[in-house]
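queue> pop job 88
queue> type: inverse folding (structure -> sequence)
queue> payload:
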């Protein structure tokens, strides 16, 4: 059985100020991705966009970038960690551990460098982005294990990295948000690394949200239903089936949530992930976890990047930053 996001009239609910920016982004980036043409070509296109983002990030001064390699304990693979710190850092600082998006099949840690550098400057923190391995080349649990291995390294090497292990926040966007949620679960279950918060930006959480568009089911912008089926099937190694979701493969299923840190979940209401984000927030709250859920009317996937000048994008960004700042400081 598959699930649908029960949102009516998605196309007619798109705010006008997003129509042209979405069209422009679709042309520039290749949204929605056509994985039937081959994953390699989609990755190549996406990598070109990342290169452009890296050029833009060079305009942000006062931040030092270092790349470290951490060995996977399972196969000795070198997991890259991108570590961003304030220039001439002399004090112990809190850390924000970040996982990038890309539907579990695309992307790289550096794609969010512009945002991460700004976090370092604005929050006076250390930012660590893990370059986890991608499906279908590496299916579950390898990407999640990479994320944990990187986090464990940060914790174990806290003195060398000059970070405060009592102020570790995990977070991510889209697929990275889903991985961050699962990482919080596995980290708290292992009871070695304390986490103070999980910041989940439109997280990809539900493998069963794979009903395809057609009839009265509108497709979604940017990340489509066909994309979601491809992403989850690649990650799980098979088409998702109800009752067959392994523990930690999806934060939404098969887990006692009572030992988790406070959470903030943010999503647009016409994002494909809106329903699953709302469901996970409800589960966290029911488990006694302090949880903030922010739902933005008219928000598509990644809407704050598509047109950051709009009112809902400005609200999203202000809330994101205030939540992160409070979590890192308190």
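queue> result:
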């Amino acid at each position: 059985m598959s699930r649908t996001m029960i949102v009516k009239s998605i196309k007619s609910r798109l705010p006008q100020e997003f129509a042209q920016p979405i069209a422009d982004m679709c042309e520039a980036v290749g949204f929605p991705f056509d994985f039937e043409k081959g994953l390699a070509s989609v990755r190549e296109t996406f990598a070109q966009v990342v290169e452009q983002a890296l050029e833009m990030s060079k305009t942000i001064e006062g931040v030092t970038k270092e790349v470290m390699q951490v060995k996977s304990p399972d196969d000795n693979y070198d997991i890259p960690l991108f570590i961003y710190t304030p220039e001439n850092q002399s004090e112990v600082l809190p850390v924000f551990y970040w996982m990038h998006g890309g539907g579990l099949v695309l992307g790289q840690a550096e794609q969010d460098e512009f945002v991460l550098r700004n976090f370092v400057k604005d929050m006076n923190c250390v930012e660590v982005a893990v370059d986890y391995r991608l499906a279908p080349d590496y299916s579950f649990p390898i990407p999640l294990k990479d994320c944990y291995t990187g986090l464990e390294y940060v914790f174990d090497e806290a003195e060398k990295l000059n970070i405060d292990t009592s102020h570790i926040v995990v977070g991510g966007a889209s697929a990275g948000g889903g991985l961050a949620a699962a990482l919080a679960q596995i980290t708290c279950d292992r009871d070695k690394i304390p986490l103070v918060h999980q910041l989940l930006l439109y997280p990809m959480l539900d493998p069963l949200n794979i009903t395809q568009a057609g009839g009265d089911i509108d497709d979604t912008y940017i990340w489509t239903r066909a994309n979601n089926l491809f992403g989850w099937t690649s990650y799980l190694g098979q088409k998702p089936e109800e009752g067959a979701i392994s523990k930690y493969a999806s934060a939404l299923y098969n887990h006692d949530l009572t030992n988790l840190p406070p959470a903030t979940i943010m999503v647009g209401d016409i994002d494909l992930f809106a329903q699953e984000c709302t469901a996970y927030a409800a589960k966290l709250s029911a488990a006694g976890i302090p949880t903030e859920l922010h739902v933005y009317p008219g928000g598509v996937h990644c809407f704050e990047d598509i047109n950051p000048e709009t009112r809902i994008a400005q609200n999203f960004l202000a809330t994101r930053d205030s939540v992160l700042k409070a979590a890192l400081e308190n």
